[in-house]
Design brief:
This protein is mainly β. It has one domain: Immunoglobulin-like, CATH 2.60.40. Helix content is 13%, strand content 38%. The protein has 2 helices and 9 strands; from the N terminus they run βααββββββββ. The strands form 2 sheets. A 5-stranded mixed beta sheet has the order 1-5-2-8-9. Strands 4-3-6-7 form a 4-stranded antiparallel beta sheet, with no helix packed on it. A hairpin with a 7-residue loop joins strand 6 and strand 7.
C-alpha cells in the first residue's frame, strides 16, 4: 500500500487519452484499475476500499496524486469506494477500466 504519483498531464490531453485509449493511462496498473486525474488544486491521497467493505478500516490501496497529475486506483468489485484524504463524508464510487476527473469534494466527472 505504497504512495505513488503516476504522471503529470494536461487535462485536455487526459480527456483525449481517456476517450481514445484508456489502456494507455492504466498501463502497468493492477487489473481492474481506474484512473483519477486530480484537478482540485492541491495534492490528495485517495484511500480505496472494496465496494463490499462496510467498515472501511483498512484501505485496499492509498494513492497520493498531486494536482495536475493522474494515478491509478484499484480494489475489488464492480465499483471501488474512494475516500479523498480518508474522509468518508466525501466518498465517491469509480468503476474499473474508467477514467475520472476529481475537482474537489462532490466534484467528480467521468472523463470518457
Amino acid at each position: 500500500m505504497g504512495v505513488e504519483i503516476e504522471g503529470t498531464i494536461d487535462l485536455n490531453k487526459f480527456h483525449k487519452l481517456a476517450s481514445q485509449d484508456i489502456a494507455k493511462l492504466i498501463a502497468g496498473a493492477a487489473v481492474d484499475g481506474a484512473v483519477i486525474f486530480n484537478n482540485s488544486g492541491k495534492p490528495v491521497t485517495f484511500h480505496v476500499y472494496n465496494y463490499s467493505d462496510l467498515v472501511n478500516w483498512v484501505p485496499a490501496q492509498k494513492t497520493l496524486i498531486a494536482s495536475g497529475a493522474y494515478g491509478t486506483v484499484a480494489a475489488s468489485g464492480v465499483f471501488f469506494k474512494i475516500h479523498p484524504n480518508n474522509n468518508k463524508g466525501e466518498e465517491f464510487l469509480v468503476a474499473p477500466g474508467k477514467a475520472y476527473v476529481y475537482a474537489g469534494p462532490g466534484r467528480l466527472e467521468a472523463a470518457a
